[in-house]
Amino acid sequence: MKRITVFCASSFGTEKIYEEQAILVGKTLAEQGIELVYGGANVGLMGAVADGALNAGGKVIGVLPNFLRSKEIAHLGLTELVLVESMHERKTKMNDLCDGVIALPGGFGTLEELFEMLTWAQLGLHKKPIAILNINGFYDSLIALLQTMTEKGLLKEVNQKMLLVSDSIDDLLHQMQNYTAPTVGKWIDKKKL
Fold first, then answer.
1. How far is Cα 159 from Cα 185, in angstroms, rounded to an integer?
2. Contact 54, 26 (CB under 8 A)
3. Are 111 and 102 in contact (CB under 8 A)?
4. Residue range 97-103: mean pLDDT, rounded
5. For the whole prediction, is pTM greater than 0.70?
6. Would you state the pLDDT for residue 101?
7. d(CA 107, CA 111)
8. Roughly what angle, to the nearest 10 degrees, separates helices 169-177 and 16-31?
9. pLDDT at 193
């Protein structure tokens, strides 16, 4: 993997470990020669992951919609800042630039980005690994919901397993580097219902 997109919050949240782990993610990517692609802001966990990579000598590409420049405050120290017109264009560009995705703690935006990437993978639009860094159990409830979706027949188990999960960035990167996308499509066979 040459580049990984990281989705995360533009705030720090309530636990200091979120910021510490965001910095560690950026640093780890840089040390492994993996470029960071992220949302382009210098605030919150977004700024922390970028600074972690930059301070370790890594390359960082930010993708920021013009209308968020004043709200999220563009990071001025990046290797490259790509300005786009919409959130849809942002996600498309971030997907185009990366070989895999990691979600750190975040809110609606982070979840929306994560699930769009998962949906695209489920539909066979890409075969990239998609992962969650489950810091302090932040995503435990979401992981439980995905299990419920699978148990209730609304999500295939093979698609559930597309989402890689760990509380360790090193383990997560190992999983991502060894990921093979499923060959089964999204559509549920009516004959099996």
1. 9
2. yes
3. no
4. 98
5. yes
6. 98
7. 6
8. 50
9. 45
Structure tokens at 54: 């930059």
189 pLDDT higher than 70: no
Report residue 146 as tokens: 């995905």
The backbone torsions φ and ψ at residue 133, rounded to the nearest 5 degrees and listed phi first, read -90, 105
Type of residue found at 74: A
Rounded Cα distance between 4 and 193, Å, is 38
Of all residues in the chain, what percent carry a pLDDT higher than 70?
A: 93
- If we measure between CA atoms, which residue out of 47, 50, 10, 45 comes closest to residue 29? 50
Identity of the residue numbered 188: I
Pick the closest to residue 172 from 102, 97, 95 (CA basis): 102
Question: d(Cα 44, Cα 77) in Å, to the nearest integer?
Answer: 15
Contact 104, 18 (CB under 8 A): yes
How is residue 119 written in tokens? 């949906």
